[in-house]
Amino acid sequence: MKWRLREGNGEAIYEIGVEDSGNLTGLSQWDMSASLQTLQRMAKKLGATTTILRERTLDNNRTVAEVLVRKIPDDQNNIEIRIAVLGNADAGKSTLLGVLTQGSLDNGQGRARLNMFRHLHEIQSGRTSSISHEILGFTSQGQPVHYNYSELITAEEICEASTKLITFIDLAGHKKYIRTTIQGLSGYSPHHAMLVISSTAGVTGMAQEHLAIAVALNVPFFIVVTKIDLTPPMNTLRSLKSFLEQVGSRRVPLVIETIDDVITAGTNQLTENVVPIFCISSVNGDGLELLLKFLHVLPPGISSKEKDRLEQELAEFQIDENFRAGNIGQVLGGLLTKGVISEGAKLQIGPMKDGSFRKVCVKSIHRNRVPCRVVRAGQSAAICLDTYIPNLRNGMVLVSNDLKVYGCLYFQATISVIYHATGIHQGFETTVHIGNIRQTAVIVGIFSSNCIHTNESASVLFKFKGHSEYLTVGQRLLFREETAKGIGEVTQVFPLNVNTY
């Protein structure tokens, strides 16, 4: 059990009464009761909790059961999962998140989404234009912990009361903000993506675009069809199924109708090509119970072994937001991709305009609006520095002092063109997304040919147009310009000749 919990990053599902071959043999009532007691005693020894997900009585009157065993890793307060929320504008993304995280249904006029918005123009237009974060917790027994859980509960108390914490990254759906959406998907490295589709509008071009980006970035996804109180979802489900079964994605749609479907979908989310589809209403609450149960059993996206490996590496923190808060000092928001950062750590920040890095010290750390002493690989956090750094921008990195780092203007990458109306030639300019970096780059050289067409691959040399960036070999790359789009991988970086100071 200890090994399985480590492998599952704090979660393991036990199937009792099932043979190794997968046959459902079942146990008698007495044997099942004894087996569950043994499992509970084993879990208790390790400081874990058990929850029966489902029980089924077979034709021979024997029973099979599926039990979730959960143990919070010793160095964490809870098991955390990041979910990016995608979908077309007006599909009901912010409303759905408002209902899930606030714990009260919408009134049909957009009341639930008001808590999601960050800017006045978003409240006035009802349209998300920025990236916002919201949290939803679950107790060990699967009860949701949201702002309606008890009177005047704070984000800090939600974190304390939860053994599992879902962080929703609410992304913009309008075509105008597509770069912000790609930035959120690429920079925040979500474990899963939730594609929200309106039953009234159906599968629009923007929803297909978002789905293509999730597939390109290799993010496991599930689909939520909203507004079923206004329009029955039959037509939308039909078009969704035919779209998912296309050659490009080769996914198997599974419409969730029972708790059994939920458990099957949750346990297979990372391994199979199954795409769970939920039909819900944020106004009358239809289907919400099944979606919450699914979020409760959803597996963490990274194995414990991989997490340990990342924590052993030197620290690298991607900066997605930076601001000054009163007299507190410089605050950086973002994701720690490698290593561990603690209070008082000596780091370096950059690259500056000339490609150099500046030495800084970490004054304090906050996670989910709660002060903490340490942030580990795979966790997002807000870090306060001891000094003010002028000319900071999103896309910079905060790295360990032991790393020899540099900025670069030129880099080489192997790219595959997903679509281009004619062909990509030397001099082609495009917005490049690499991790949290978003900048215009120009292709200054194409190796082995003069032009790349749709479905072709080639090694190319890029040059950033604005300023130098920090890149490492092996990073995934996504580019998009009007209808043209492609993916790739950084193969070589050409550093600027500067000294770190």
UniProtKB/TrEMBL annotation:
Keywords annotated in UniProt: GTP-binding, Nucleotide-binding
InterPro entries for the chain: EF-Tu_GTPase, GTPBP1-like, P-loop_NTPase, T_Tr_GTP-bd_dom, Transl_B-barrel_sf, Transl_elong_EF1A/Init_IF2_C
GO cellular component, one term: cytoplasm
Record flagged with keyword Nucleotide-binding: yes
Main location, first listed in the record: cytoplasm
MF annotations from Gene Ontology: GTP binding
Tr-type G domain: residues covered: 78-305
Keyword rRNA-binding (UniProt): no
UniProt-annotated location(s): Cytoplasm
Domain of life assignment: Eukaryota
Sequence similarity: Belongs to the TRAFAC class translation factor GTPase superfamily. Classic translation factor GTPase family. EF-Tu/EF-1A subfamily.
Protein name: Tr-type G domain-containing protein
Annotated source species: Cryptolaemus montrouzieri
Lineage: Eukaryota, Metazoa, Ecdysozoa, Arthropoda, Hexapoda
